[in-house]
UniProtKB/TrEMBL annotation:
InterPro entries: FAD/NAD-bd_sf, HpyO/CreE_NAD-binding, L-asp_N-monooxygenase_NS-form. Gene3D superfamilies: FAD/NAD(P)-binding domain. It comes from Leeuwenhoekiella marinoflava DSM 3653. This is FAD-NAD(P)-binding. Residues 8-176 form the FAD-dependent urate hydroxylase HpyO/Asp monooxygenase CreE-like FAD/NAD(P)-binding domain. It comes from the Bacteria. Transmembrane segments: none annotated.
Length: 575
């Protein structure tokens, strides 16, 4: 009898779970007689969920993916039976909810990250329990610090254990620690010298709910995106504050508690607030491209893929997107859009807007609007209570376009130069395309109107470390914050990642970054490409740090998509 083929999965968050399920599915569908043994490594306490979706995080952390999307697209696991192994089916998200069908025509529901984490952790546990007692699975709750190729496979080193040999390894690692920026490094030294509180990592936000923050504390928050909203909720709801809906209004009211800090100061490099997703399915469908528009968009991508040597930037993508946005905008109900331009004029204006977000036009929300005013306009658009601006429309169309890209064109075999440009435009879209629930904007506006959230310094203030905190200055106003909170999550740039695992790969010179701005070069099946252009048959990478080879790396649903299946099928084929 042949020995087991040993496969290591390093990092068992959603992507590691998807890799594990895909492996067994590929095995079931193959005629390989090789027996598999899987060795799993996950440092966090909740495999399947990992650190980002941990079920024990504060309930105020919300997903920015609504249940309508999760119900339609997060499919379950079929029952798997091969050799002596039986793995039971697990329901898709919709069936797992086990509740009466929600009426998304009135309001979309955004689950907490903890709720999604419970789903993912349960899904993993049913699989692990099915294999308990067999010699087909091993689990190490440890951090991996190094993976090295060996003559016949690879060796995995953890912080505390002896080296573990495997025939194959896949790195399904998500958010990795990064080196501090110069600003954070200086702030860190200042905090240490003056015994001040600096929270460098956006998560876990529950860490903010401490005695060191009181009603008298002024807290400054660096960043104006999704993580900041989670942190603001922790600093308000987490301290006993309450948000109430106002009757006959889309606005909410904030009632502070005696314990909650009375001053939260938010700032970012451009002072632009996140744009909420439409409030319900009806308004969301205004922005949904039709079959013909999707077909035209897909054609542009496929044409580019057939002529990769002549593609050196993202023009093919943004031109197709501008064309699709123009068509969608002309279909928005007349009472909900501004004056009419021709399709060609709209397409040209949209292209200009994509290239230059501060383009000025009557159809575009002013780039330099005060932050509160901008939030109020965006909230009204999300509820369909004011004319839709072209930038808001573009952002929502981007979201649908990304759905096509992430699902069907995860691996675009373009040049480095073109991939850097594609990723640059995708990242730039996220203020809209990755927008929060309307509830988040309602809460932020309520906090501003209650005098708690201070936007006077929101647009790139001067920041000076002082003995009792950090002094923020803008437009002849100043304020001192005793606590500084970083809510900026670093982009997955390989050169900025400080984790020992990635450092060892880079020092080894066996791997080839896509570009200094992105991640590792991989093939479509996740095989890591070396400096000499060869692929490592025994070490693969799926996830954030393949950004530039793969797109859609930050999408939960796509963790269960093509890349994991391609990796598993390729591995089983090699056997």
């Amino acid at each position: 009898m042949s020995k087991h083929y040993k496969i290591a999965i390093v990092g068992v968050g959603p992507r590691g779970l998807a890799a594990l399920e895909s492996l067994y599915l590929a095995k079931k569908n193959s005629n390989s007689s090789k027996k598999l043994k899987v060795v799993l490594f996950e440092a966090s306490a909740y495999p399947g969920a990992g650190q980002v979706w941990t079920p024990n995080q504060v309930k105020t952390n919300l997903s920015n993916v609504h249940e309508r999307n999760l119900s339609n697209n997060l499919a379950g696991r079929e029952a798997l039976h091969f050799e002596d192994v039986f793995i039971p089916e697990f329901p898709g998200y919709k069936d797992w909810l086990a509740s009466a069908a929600a009426d998304y025509s009135k309001k979309d529901i955004f689950p907490s990250r903890a709720k999604l984490g419970s789903y993912l952790n349960e899904r993993f546990n049913t699989l692990k329990e099915a294999l308990a007692g067999s010699d087909l699975i091993e689990f190490y709750q440890e951090e991996v610090i190094k993976v090295e190729p060996s003559e016949s496979g690879c060796i995995i080193y953890t912080k505390h254990n002896q080296p573990i040999e495997a025939d194959d390894a896949v790195l399904t690692i998500g958010h990795q620690p990064t080196y501090d920026s110069e600003q954070l490094r200086k702030w860190s030294e200042h905090a240490e010298e003056n015994n001040l509180k600096l929270y460098k990592d956006p998560y876990p936000v529950g860490a903010l709910e401490t005695d060191s923050i009181s009603e008298e504390t002024t807290v400054a928050l660096r960043g104006f995106g999704l993580s900041m909203v989670d942190q603001v909720r922790a600093l308000s709801i987490g301290f006993g504050g309450v948000f109430k809906e106002k009757e006959d209004s889309i606005k909410w009211e904030y009632i502070p508690s005696e314990k909650a800090p009375k001053q939260l100061v938010v700032f970012s490099l451009n002072g632009l607030p996140p744009a909420p997703k439409p409030v319900n399915a009806i308004i969301d469908n205004w922005f949904k491209p039709n079959e013909k528009e999707n077909h035209s968009f897909v054609n542009a991508i496929e044409k580019a893929e057939q002529n990769t040597e002549s593609i050196n930037d993202a023009s093919f993508l943004i031109e197709a997107l501008a064309n699709m946005t123009a068509s969608v905008y002309l279909r928005i109900p007349e009472q909900n859009r501004k004056h009419m331009l021709s399709h060609q004029e709209l397409s040209q204006l949209t292209l200009q807007l994509i290239k230059n977000p501060n383009t000025a036009h009557d159809l575009i929300l002013k780039y330099d609007l005060p932050a509160l005013e901008a939030m109020q306009h965006l909230l009204q658009m999300a509820f369909g209570q004011t004319a839709i601006s072209l930038d808001y429309c573009l952002g929502q169309v981007w979201r649908f376009a990304l759905g096509i890209l992430y699902h069907d064109y995860t691996y675009l075999n373009l040049t480095d130069e073109a991939m850097v440009d594609v990723v640059r435009y995708i990242e730039a879209s996220k203020r809209y395309s990755y927008g929060p629930p309307v509830k988040s904007l309602q809460q932020l506006i309520a906090l501003v109107e209650a005098g708690v959230l201070n936007l006077d310094f929101v647009n790139d203030p001067k920041i000076t470390p002082v003995e009792n905190g950090w002094k923020l200055e803008k437009n002849n106003k100043s304020i001192i914050a005793q606590v500084m909170v970083n809510s900026v999550i670093d982009a997955p740039q390989l050169v900025a990642v400080s984790s020992p695992l990635i450092q060892h790969l880079l020092k080894d010179k066996r791997v080839d970054p896509v570009s200094y701005k992105l991640g590792l070069h991989t093939l479509e099946d996740g095989s890591i490409i070396s400096k000499n252009g060869n692929s490592h048959q025994h070490i693969s990478l799926l996830g954030r740090l393949a950004k530039g080879s793969i797109i859609g790396v930050d999408d939960l649903i796509e963790c269960f998509g093509k890349p994991a299946h391609k990796w598993a099928e390729s591995l089983i084929d090699r056997l």
